[in-house]
Structures are given as C-alpha cells and as structure tokens.
Amino acid sequence: MHTTDNISVKNIWSILSAVCDPEVPVLSVIDLGIIRDVKIIPANGEEGIEVVITPTYSGCPAMDVIRMNIRMELLQHGYKNVQITTVLSPAWTTDWMTDSGKQKLKDFGIAPPNPKQQVCNTQLFAEDEAVQCPHCQSYNTRRISEFGSTACKALFQCNDCQEPFDYFKCH
Amino acid sequence: MTKDATYNYLLHLADNALILAQRNSEWCGHGPVLEQDIAITNISLDLIGQSRSLYQYAAELINEGTGAATEDTLAYLRDTRDFKNCLLVEQPNGDWAQTILRQFFFSTYQFFLYQRLQQSGDAHLAAIAEKSLKEVTYHVRWSSEWVIRLGDGTEESRNRLLNALDELWMFTGELFVPSAYESEAFKAGIGVDVSALKANWEQRVNEVFEEATISIVSTSAWMQSGGKEGAHTEHLGFILAEMQYMQRVYPGCEW
C-alpha cells in the first residue's frame, strides 16, 4: 500500500500508459489523448488521486469500460482512493493523439487521423482527404463510408492494393 | 430564470436527440446496404450520447442531491405528455428518403443551434454543445450528400424524396418558434433564440436542394406544432412503448 508521501503524479501517468482502449487495443488512454490531468487530492484524511478524462465521442460505449479499467489498474498498483472526473470542454480532438499512438495505429492496419485543419467542415462532397493506405502506403485511396465499425472510424479502400481499411477519422 | 425553465429547456434538447436516435436505431439490420446501416446507427449512437449528457445535467439540477432522478428515469419513466421533443424527430422512418430528409432537416437545425449554444452563459451546457457540434458536423455532411444523391438520382429516388418532402415539410416550422421555456432560457443568456436560426437553416436547405434539383415547398405553408409543449402526433406513444417497455415491466433492470 502506498502511504501519503509517496504518490507521485509521474508514476500515475506511467501506470495509466498500460490502460488500453478496449476497441482499439493497440492504443493506450495516453496515446488517445483522453487523460487531461492527474492530480493528488485529499481523500478521507489520506491522499487520493483524481484522474480527469474526456470522452472521444459523446456516445462512445468504450468510455465506461475505460473508466473501470483505469480504476482497476490503479487498484492493482495499490491506489485505492481514485476519483475519475469527466470533462467535456475543451472537446477532444484527434490532434491530441500522440505520434507514437499514430504509428501504433498504422502498424495495426488502421490509417491514423490527418491533422484537423484539413477537414471537419460541412462542405458538401468536400474533396476527400488524402488518406494513406496503411498496407501499401499508397495515397490513391477512396472513402467508402463516413462511418465505420466504431464512432471514431471511417471506411476506406485502397485503389492500388484493393485492401479495404479503417481510417481513424479526424475530429 | 426559474429552475423549471432550465430543466424544461434541457429536457427539450435531450428529448430531441433521444427520440431521433430511437427512430434511427429502427434501421439497425435493415439499412439499404451494410455501410449505410452502420452510418445511420452510428448517428443514433452520437445522439444517444448527447442526450445522456443533457439528461444527466437535468437530473442533477432537479435532484438537489436527493438522487431521485437519473438519466434513466428521465428517459424511461416519463410519459408522452412530458416529452418535449419537436414533432419532426418522432415522424416514422418511412422509406430511406424520408429518413434521410428528416435527418438532414434536423441535423442542419442542430448544427446552427449548437454553434450558438457554445456561447451559452451556462458553462456546462456550452461544453455539451461544443462536444456535440463536432459530431453533428458529420451528420450534416452525410445527410446533405444523400439528399443530393436521391434528388439528382433516378426518377424513382427523386419521387421518393419529393414524397418525403411533402410528408415532412409541415413539421419544420416548429423548430423556429420558441416555446415559453426557450424564450426564458434565451433571455437568461443560457439558451438560443431559435427564431434567429431560420434564415441560416433555409439558406443551407436551399443550397442543398439546388444541388438536388428540387425546391422548398413554400415558406408560407401551414405548419404543425405542439411537440415542445407535450402535444405530440400519435407516433410518440408507440416509440415510448417500445423504448420504455423493459423498464416499465422490470423496474430497475440492468444488463
């Protein structure tokens, strides 16, 4: 068990890097950019931990599981007093995803999100983003559907190698 | 501003999202092609998420720490007269064209609404709007593209879209006529003046309709109203019967 004087915020961050997104298991919650803050707070006369998270999408069903997994992981490391707070603003953006997270996605066969400035507007038939095929690296790809297997992904296909693939869409 | 008005305003926003989500979810497993089945149910998921944030906030407000109201009691244990959604979102799915047009009308409205609601004097409500707006942006783009595809498609798809327009147009007027609680919320700096959204909405609809080679029925057509005050079309009762059945028969059941 941890006593009051040895909770270190840095240590908590490193423990959290082992908590993964249940739907995209190669990404940790830190890679995703959904951990906004870690604080030491008073709890029942001892020191507790507050983890501040933000949801990816409002209806993302993985968020409840992620909340539970954070609690379990910290408990396993002996941290009992854990409070998980959800904040909505500023709204999560794929720009917060780490570079190593993007690389992991690509290695997993999911095209990582493009920088946000390129899309996210209501323009009709807006020129499709140049999304790189995670298999053959070609940019000659096309969007099949704006919505994919989870809220955060769109469905693409490569015109060169013909492989369909998920694209973690910019948000 | 009275607490009742804020509460009603939150319920109105939440009910709009939840009822349309429930309607769209009826397509699950029945979409015209797999990709679009997934798209429409993804939109449902976004809307359910938005309604959850709003119901949670409404419950917090009305509870004063008693814990009696929750997001679930608000969604599952209120009756038709208590629901404050606009009539548009409860209209039947009809064919794909009717579902698409309903989504397009509503998403376009929601887009301009949330855009302004981001400046709400209520920080929590502003945060919900900021979060939701990103999702709605995708809904607007997706539904606009489908309206164009159907209107400027085959004779069959065009006729279906025109029939949908005849069915749904009369339910669009209500969106821009504020109820008492919307007016109060606007005056208190918390809500949006929906009458001011009409020009933007019509402009956007006209742009998309032009691409789709169809046109607005008539801006002076007679409009249905009453949903915001709990006077609904006959459809809402059936929606709630299906949606609330489990909680009514097995109170508090979970899985």
TrEMBL record, chain A:
Transmembrane segment boundaries: none
InterPro entries: Fe-S_Maturation_MIP18 (IPR052339), FSCA_dom_sf (IPR034904), MIP18-like (IPR002744), PaaD-like (IPR011883), Zn_ribbon_PaaD (IPR056572)
PaaD zinc beta ribbon domain span: 121-169
Domain of life: Bacteria
One Pfam family this sequence matches: FeS_assembly_P
Residues annotated as domain MIP18 family-like: 11-75
Name by which UniProt lists this protein: Phenylacetate-CoA oxygenase subunit PaaJ
Organism: Niastella vici
UniProtKB/TrEMBL annotation, chain B:
Pfam families xrefs: PaaA_PaaC (PF05138)
InterPro entries found in the cross-reference section: Aromatic_CoA_ox/epox, Ferritin-like, Ferritin-like_SF, PaaA_PaaC, PaaC
GO cellular component entries: cytosol
Gene3D superfamilies the record matches: 1.20.1260.10
Residue ranges that the Swiss-Prot or TrEMBL entry lists as coiled coil: none
UniProt superkingdom: Bacteria
GO biological process: phenylacetate catabolic process
Stored PANTHER family: 1,2-PHENYLACETYL-COA EPOXIDASE, SUBUNIT C (PTHR30458:SF0), PHENYLACETIC ACID DEGRADATION PROTEIN PAA (PTHR30458)
Protein name, entry field: Phenylacetic acid degradation protein
Species, as recorded: Niastella vici
